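Continuing the series of single-chain predictions for the mutant panel. This is the parent chain; the variants come on the following pages.
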Amino acid sequence: QGEGSKFLYVFDRSGSMSTDRRLERVKAELVFAVRALDMSQKFSIIFFDDYSWVLGETGPTQEDDRSTLKLFDATAANKKMAVEWIVSQSIGGSTNAGPACFLGLTARPELLMLLSDGEFPPHLVTDITRRNNERSGPGARIDCVGVAESIQTLQETTGFITPPAAGLASETGRRRLPPDFDTTVGLALPC
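Parent structure:
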């Protein structure tokens, strides 16, 4: 559970999540996280495959249909509704996290938790970072969790390293991250 009062969970339900019962295990952890929220917090959930599936909606949601995304108060009734909805989620099609993330950022969460076993192209990470930074006020902290047998970090993907590892730059020849680069996006991308 992260710090803050407004949480958005964006979780993969694509076909590959059937491997090793990934979706079932992820749903169990999400149920745990939702139940741990206190009454002062707000939350919502989006599952994604080819489409975005938003908590409280009966069908897929389009990226530009912002009216459907709502942050719920973490009351006992809303948490119960969320748990029932989480449990009902099933395996879908291919992995398309972009529209779900873009839709999620419109709710202005303080923390967006993105979980997938898919590989995200670098341009998607850049687009999510750009949209997050374009918000008025502070952007969301975006935590990415990779569910896979091996994980490749964004730094490994792009050849950048973060300033705390500056000593490695001369040894590896990799470049440092630009000062305005949002390192909270894509810290654990499956390879």
